[in-house]
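Weekly modeling sync, notes
Attendees: AB, CL, MP (scribe)

Item 1: holo prediction request
CL wants a bound-state model with pyridoxal-5'-phosphate before deciding which constructs to order. AB pointed out that an apo prediction alone won't tell us much about the pocket. Agreed to run with the ligand included and paste results into these notes for async review.

Input as submitted:
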Amino acid sequence: MKGDPRKRGFSTRAVHAGQAPEPVTGAVAVPIFQTSTYVHPGLGESKGFDYARTTNPTRTALEENVAALEGGHRGHAFASGMAAISTLMTLVHADDHAVFSANVYGGTYRFIEQVLDRYRVRATWVDTTDLQAVQDALQESTKLVFLESPTNPMMEVTDIAAVAELASTVSATVAVDNTFMSPYFQQPLDLGANVVVHSTTKFLNGHSDSIGGVLVTDSEELSDWFAFVQKSAGGILSPFDAFLTMRGIKTLGVRMERHESNANAVARYLDQHGKVAAVHYPGLEAFPGHGLQRQQSTGFGAMISFEVETFERAKTVLDAFEVFSLAESLGGVESLACHPGSMTHASVPAERRAELGIGDGLVRLSVGIEDEADLLDDLGQALDRLD
Ligand code: PLP
């Protein structure tokens, strides 16, 4: 397209931002620049690319694309969501304080408790849905506030703008893991956050065939630092994975619409089912975060968790699924189901899981884009196995 895609609508940006035709041939798809280095025209001269750990045109195209979708300054792509999150954590140093939302992805919890802790960073875990608790947790030395909204797997919704406002009183950087919503439904930088985190492995790539992560910033200063860490620590996304992720993002809007309409039907089906004790999905009117989610996002996404009381009952349902596959991860076109207590959140100690409500009878669904009727049939036949 001609002109600046950043001035266009979401799906136009998804297809075109960072995707200018390749100058030599006009190739419409950004090529995979599978190279480790670039020849210099002469000593002291460069075409802007020196070594592929620092920059690669395929990765740059993806970074520009995601930055345009999140309305950010710049994007930085990493080898995984955790590589992006560990780069984010370089913002805190020994004796700094950081606030984390109590319920985060199990791998994020493990990184903070077992890696960051060795660097003497002081972490406070807070129920960020409780603004008074956030306010009480903030200190003069708080450098970072990190949250997920909605959380994995309890789907709790935090008021991002209100937390950003509170954090600004101590000049802390606010980072939001936006993996569950994708920029199609939620743009945390617009709500006052400074950094958006994604595991691109999930909805952004959307096809369960790549592991990756991105950070999108709201400032040159943060971007300069993250680009420096990309170059220095080297946890970068490969050109091939950048290509796959861009290819996935082009259909993000259409996929998210379908994911969500299926999820809405699944959540309502589970909600009225006599063998389901509770359903956690912000799209349900009675869910505590429903109103807030409606206010700060344009959708409710496709992640649902529900309770069937015991581990044995969860196992019966999970083993019986035919269309839903029993697997970790989420956000792909295929529907997945998992048992957070023993899978995605196994690295969170049992007492803490219990405090967060991640019980043995909790099942998490990532609702895909298959036919709605097949998904409801599958849930029905699996729940029928329960007494
Ligand atoms: N953030 C969230 C919300 C996740 O669910 C995950 C993985 O499941 C991650 C981050 C980590 O991403 P990755 O597996 O790409 O390292």
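Recorded for review: The two ends are 58 Å apart (CA to CA).
Action items: CL to compare against the apo run; MP to circulate these notes.
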